[in-house]
Write a structure and sequence with these properties.
123 residues; 5-stranded mixed barrel
Length: 123
């Protein structure tokens, strides 16, 4: 059997690392993944995928990535069952990341803007 997720999307927010009671680092992020086809209105729908990052993957992603950056995520799908305070049963699905690939960053965008600005000044 195979439980694997591979997706590419934009970070919805800037990653933040928290520490669990037992000292592990964790970060919860969401990526916006556009679908490969247009809906009836001619627009590409987007899925918002929740991803959990642990330890080194969490630290590196928080250090190098910001809201709007494009990242690749490889991991496994995990479903959690829980009960609300009202006794209602719920289910949540998330991706537990094994690997994150940094595909673009705001730093690259800033460097391009600075380069374009300096080119204009030289004229």
């Amino acid at each position: 059997m195979l439980n694997q997720f591979v997706g590419v999307g934009r970070l919805v927010g800037t990653p933040e690392v928290k520490e669990t009671e037992d000292g592990k680092k964790v970060s919860n992020i969401t990526i916006a993944v556009p679908r490969s086809y247009k809906n009836a209105e001619g627009v590409y729908d987007t899925d918002f995928v929740d991803v959990v990052l642990w330890d080194g993957v969490a630290s590196n992603t928080a250090e190098y990535c910001h809201k709007g950056d494009i990242i690749g995520v490889k991991g496994r799908i995990q479903t959690n069952n829980y009960e609300t305070e009202d006794g209602e049963k719920r289910k949540s699905t998330q991706i537990v990341a094994e690997k994150i690939t940094f595909l673009s960053s705001n730093k690259e965008k800033e460097d391009e803007v600075e380069k374009d600005s300096s080119d204009e000044m030289e004229m």
